[in-house]
Design goal:
This protein has 277 residues and is an alpha+beta fold. Helices cover 19% and strands 31% of the residues.
């Protein structure tokens, strides 16, 4: 059974909402990150990571000055240190409010999106618009070695850091899995994804790592907080000197969310889209 957290009592997620008839930035619903970070021992001003929440919106449209529709794909980046994330249903409704709104040009759309999203996140937000057939949107593959062929027995479908162990050998490697699944914290709907882990430090036991990642299968939380949960558990159990955790979640409602968190000093990953997104 799904449970609506107190921070979402007024959110539009999971409720019937009228189709927005006109541009309305008030549709955006910010959610403080602090409430979900506190149980992980993460507090404002002392973040153990850097990172971004990268969003792609595939249903972006507006009217030009003569009333002709324009369509595009948008990429948004919210910094991990922003006080707020933005609830996805409200984001979709907000974007829909552009559908019958006239803008002089693409720059005016970008300026409006940048201003409104930054106000909701309470931090600078990066906005890019792409033509729907742009090469930059072509699907790619995650780098590294895939864990999914490991022949393991699994009986635990809630995340347990007890599965994570590391040996004495120091390595630098990149591992990934397509078996990530978590659930919406309100509706209980499945959120499918892939996760990549790049680290330098004591070698992580792979079968235990895969069991740990599969453990999110019945876990209810936002995409962003699942990634922070994974990052925190890996830092505490494996104690790497460098760590990057990146998740690429499958789109739902025309939006996909791809958060990444890394130890300070690591080069940010290049944006990429997977075939499932």
């Amino acid at each position: 059974m799904s449970h609506r957290p107190e921070t979402l009592m007024e959110a539009p997620l999971g409720r019937e909402s009228a189709y927005p008839e006109a541009y309305d930035p008030g549709l955006l619903y910010p959610i403080p990150r602090a409430a979900n970070r506190a149980p992980l021992g993460i507090f404002e001003g002392k973040l153990p990571f850097v990172g971004e929440d990268e969003w792609h919106a595939f249903e972006v449209s507006w009217l030009n000055g003569r009333g002709k529709p324009v369509v595009a794909v948008a990429r948004f980046r919210l910094p991990a240190d922003s006080p707020n994330l933005i609830e996805s249903k409200s984001w979709k409704l907000y974007l829909n409010s552009f559908n019958q709104t006239r803008f002089a040009n693409r720059d005016a759309v970008i300026a409006t999106l940048t201003q409104d999203l930054a106000a909701a996140a309470n931090a600078p937000v990066s906005v890019e618009l792409f033509d729907v057939d742009a090469d930059a949107l072509a699907p790619q593959q995650l780098p590294g070695e895939c864990l999914d062929a490991l022949d393991i027995e699994v009986s635990d479908y809630t995340p347990s850091a007890d599965h994570l162990t590391a040996g004495d050998q120091v390595v630098e490697e990149t591992l990934y899995s397509h078996l990530l699944k978590s659930n919406c914290p309100v509706t209980g709907q499945p959120d499918w994804g892939s996760v990549m882990i790049r680290y330098k430090g004591p070698k992580i036991e792979r079968e235990g790592l895969l069991r740990y990642l599969i453990g999110y299968r019945q876990h209810q939380d936002f995409h962003e907080h699942c990634v922070e949960h994974i990052f925190t558990d890996l830092m505490q159990r494996a104690k790497p000197t460098e760590l990057l955790v990146l998740a690429r979640y499958v789109r739902r409602g025309g939006l996909d969310i791809s958060p990444w968190r890394a130890t300070p000093g690591l080069v940010p990953p290049s944006p990429l889209r997977l075939a499932r997104q």
